[in-house]
Amino acid sequence: MSAFGGYNGQAYSPSGEKGRFVLPPAFRKAVKESSGGSRTLCLTVHDKFDCLIGFGLSRIDQLHAKLDREEDAAIRRNDDSFDRDVRAAQLFGFEQLSFDDSGRFIMPEHLRDLGKIVDGAYFHAAGDFFFVWAPDQLMGMGPEWKGAQAACAKLMVTAKKGAAE
Description:
alpha+beta; 21% strand; 6 helices; two-stranded antiparallel ribbon
């Protein structure tokens, strides 16, 4: 098993029946490496954008450290509004989903709803995690997302051509 080196790349997965999606090969390999060889995908809603994020189990340690840093920063600022329990619920409320050797997994309905994912999902790597976008949500983002928007549009066309053949 090679060491986890982060997530990179882009891919598109059309939705299948009953909420089935395919975790693309490059992402599948990285998630498996990040999850110690198990086929466990962690998926949750992004706390800023109308999309989801995915990652492997190795990110759990990073989330604990992030929670501690945020609490320390709030204490230094004398910020009484920081609630460790609420923030912990936000960070650790992810679903752990299994996927098969082909990358197929079932995305829970509440996550599809939160991410506004209907016909397909666009995967875009971000190093320690990856975004999972509903294409129409991504297309509504600003110009800082133009590279992801172009990749998504191209990958959707390619997927439609493949389905038609």
